[in-house]
Every structure is written in C-alpha cells, then in structure tokens.
Write a structure and sequence with these properties.
This protein is of the alpha+beta class. Helices cover 37% and strands 19% of the residues. Among the domains are: 3-152, no CATH class; 155-290, no CATH class. It is globular, with a radius of gyration of 23 Å. Residues 386-447 are annotated as: Disordered.
Length: 447
C-alpha cells in the first residue's frame, strides 16, 4: 500500500462571536501549506452526532482559551476535548491533504531540518499556499471539502514616517526580505507552528544566515505600535550602549519591497492614498535573540528558583534600567512579562514599545523615569516573594513532565509515514492555547 507523509498540526483558531451557529475557522498546517477549515452548525445539521461533537469543542474552546467557567464538571477536560477534536479533524481531512499537499515541502522535511541540510524561509510562513475548506456532513458521515485555493495574498503594508526611515538608514540598520531570512528550530516539530519567533540572518554578509534573531512581526494596521517601538530602539542605538547592557537591540527590519506600491482599500473598496511623508514597507523587526518563547520569560523561570537567583535578576533589572536612564532612554512597560532570562541566567529587558500595564505602572507615569522606577520596585517585590516561588507545586511539576511527554510524542509522529487510513494524530495544542490566552489578555488591556 502506498504511504503518504503527513505532517499536520492545528496552528490557529478563529472563533465566532458567540453563538454555536457562528462560523468557526480552524487552520491546519500540513506539509508546509495552510488549510483554513470553516465550520458552522448550518454545514453539519444533517448529522446530530457530528454537530454535538462540534458544539462540545466550542464549549471547550471558550473554557480553555478564554478561561470561562466550565459548563459541566463531568467528562474530559477542556484541553483533552480540544485535542480530541483536533485529532479527529486532521484525520477527517486526510483526503483533502492528500489531494493538495501530497508531499512535504523540502524545507519543512523534519529529517532535513534535523540534519541541517534544509530549513524553511520566513517567506514560506508569511506567504504560504492557502486552501479554503469546509466541514460538511451528510447522514452522520463527515464530508471534508476544499472549496478553492486562496488567491495570492497581498498583506496590509505598514508605512513609517520618512524621518524614521532616514534615521534607520543613518544608523545603518539593515533590511532583509522574507526570502533572505531563515527559520531556525531546535525541534523539527516547531516547523509546524503558526509563525516562528527565532530566525537567522546574514549580518556579516558572509553569504550564510548564521546570526540568531527574535522575530517580531507587524502585519498591517499596527503602524502606531511599530513606529513607537522603532523610535525606542533608535534611542537605544543612538545611545551607543556597551554590549554588556542587557537590553534587546534592533538588528534589522523585515522589508517587503515587493509590496511597496501595494495599496490598502477603504470600506468602499477604494484605494487608500498615503501621505508622501509615509514610506515603507516594514513587515517586522529583527531583535537580539535572548531565549526561546515561554520558557525564557522571567515569569516562567522564577518557579522553584532559589532566592539568590531571583535577587540577581532583580538587581540586573534595576542596573539595566539605571543605565538606560543615564543615556536618556525609558524602558516603558515595566513588568515581569517584559523580562527574559538567557542561557547564562542573566535577565534582559525586552519590549521598548512603551505603554503601561495596570498594577505595575500608573497610567499617568507611563513612559517616564518615575514610571520605570515604580515598575522596577514592583518587579523586585514580585521576585522576592519567597512564599510564592521557593517551592514548585505538584501541579506545576506535572505540567512540566506533561510538556516533555507531549514533545516526545510529537517527535515520534514527525518521524513516521502515515498510511491511507484513519490514524491517530497526536496533537500538541498547549502552545496554541497559551498563545491564544496571551492574545486574549493583551486585547483586554489595550485601549
């Protein structure tokens, strides 16, 4: 029997506004392509069993991602319900994957990534092949449909003021096209993520991208945040701080030259005319690489860390902020979530986008020296709360080992070839859920 290689994982959820009948979209990355699977009660009303399964998933989604109160106290947990539905959905759509993504793209092949002979490019994430799909049902049998390939997507372009672009050129901040930026993974399974956050660029013009950077994308509609953060990074670069000052720096920008002339449209579909003072197009920032994702955040590293280590981090945060202030630079949104810890247990300040977070900096002190010092004092108080951090709870230890087990299962899945039958697809939606919860919380605090 012919075997097919399926590397499939749910990477994004776009929930409806509220009712069970609202459209819900689940995006699956399979073999380097994206499949937007649209689901709604109206599509599957002919199958009570599938409709009930879909509705249980929606309830679990709301509980797991948005931390709503559980609807029932019996049966599987919200996370298990989501995982089970994702596994079933991927199995159901295998015929669609076979037809439109029969082979893994070379740069997404786990063996090639593991051996270092291939790696995806950022362009393959920003501009992938996208297929629009729909889940239907007839007489209790699921009908997976592909309704068409999405037309070539032109992203909304962020344009920045001409003076800011001139400052970037003055400071010789390099521009990199997405096709020049390689995506770096330690675990081949990370190739299935929605969007990478660790990339490699050719800083020294050696012809080979070998400098690790943190990728922070700004795709359309976020000009204000992009400009604010860029100005903060330019102040740091202008200050010519010593390399040992642990604050992330701007290494380069993601430059979308091919979309320089692309125009957005207003609500009536007419092209938007941009002022001559706005230039572009910037797709994102390439920043000093400190550590990987959630595990590198100070808020993750504190659990079980001894008081001496937490004291060191508090001192390092205060020392770095003091150095910034002497150079006339403000940190801005001072809070533990904006501190990362590197492999040598040193604390780094991240996020120079300004703003404030309630409970850490008063609104009227945002963006000031006084506000920074207020945040630093609260971070110190947070870190030295011995009763909170000295011991790791049994639940946290179980989460740690469960993460390890999930990674091992995913690794085994990536190595295997999947025959043409309904196979078990071990999905790992823990990272997805964390990202969705984080996005939800950020939305709540934005003005």
């Amino acid at each position: 029997m012919t075997k097919h290689h399926y590397l499939a994982k749910v990477v994004f959820e776009a929930p409806g506004a509220g009712d069970d009948d609202d459209l819900h979209q689940t995006t699956v990355r399979c073999n380097g392509r994206l499949f937007n699977i649209n689901m709604a009660a109206a599509y599957i009303h002919d199958s009570p069993a599938i409709l009930a399964r879909f509705q249980r998933f929606l309830l679990a989604q709301r509980e797991f991602v948005y931390e709503e109160d559980p609807v029932t106290y019996e049966g599987p947990s919200a996370e298990d319900e989501r995982n089970s539905f994702h596994q079933w959905l991927i199995t159901t759509f295998q015929p669609v994957f076979r037809a439109h993504a029969p082979d893994v793209l070379p740069s997404f092949d786990p063996d090639a990534i593991r051996s270092g002979t291939a790696r995806p490019l950022l362009a393959e994430y920003m501009f992938p092949q996208v297929f629009e799909c729909r889940l239907e049902a007839q007489r209790d049998k699921a009908r997976p449909l592909c309704v068409g390939k999405q037309a070539d997507w032109i992203p909304p372009v962020n344009r920045i003021p001409a003076d800011l672009l001139a400052d970037l050129d003055r400071l010789r901040v390099p521009r990199y096209a997405p096709s020049e930026i390689a995506v770096a993974f330690e675990n081949p399974g990370d190739a299935l993520r929605e969007m990478p956050n660790r990339v490699l660029v050719d800083v020294d013009c050696s012809g080979y991208p070998d400098t690790a950077c943190h990728l922070k994308l700004f795709l359309g509609g976020f000009e204000g945040s992009l400009v604010t953060e860029l100005r903060g990074h330019l102040r740091v670069l202008d200050a010519q701080l010593s390399a040992h000052v642990r604050v992330i720096r701007l290494v380069g920008i993601v430059w979308l030259e091919e979309y320089a002339d692309a125009s957005d449209k207003d609500k009536d579909g007419n092209p938007v005319t941009y002022p001559e003072s706005l230039l572009g197009p910037v797709g994102g920032l390439l920043l000093t690489y400190v550590s990987e994702g959630w595990d590198g955040l100070l808020t993750s590293r504190v659990w079980g860390s001894p008081p001496a280590m937490r004291r060191q981090w508090a001192d390092q945060v205060r020392e770095t902020v003091t150095t910034l202030h002497k150079a006339g630079v403000m940190w801005g949104d001072a809070k533990p979530e904006n501190v990362m810890v590197d492999g040598n247990n040193n604390a780094w300040l991240i996020d120079l986008g300004g703003g404030f977070t309630e409970g850490w900096v008063d609104e009227d002190k945002a963006g000031t020296k006084e506000g920074d010092l207020q945040g630093v004092a609260k971070i110190e108080e947070y870190l030295m709360d011995n009763d909170r951090f000295e011991m790791t709870s049994e639940d946290e230890q179980e989460d740690k080992y469960e993460d390890k087990r999930e990674s091992e299962r995913e690794f085994r899945e990536l190595r295997g070839d999947y025959e043409d039958r309904e196979d078990e697809h071990e999905g790992d939606s823990r990272d997805l859920g964390r990202e969705e919860r984080s996005m939800s919380k950020r939305r709540k605090i934005q003005p």
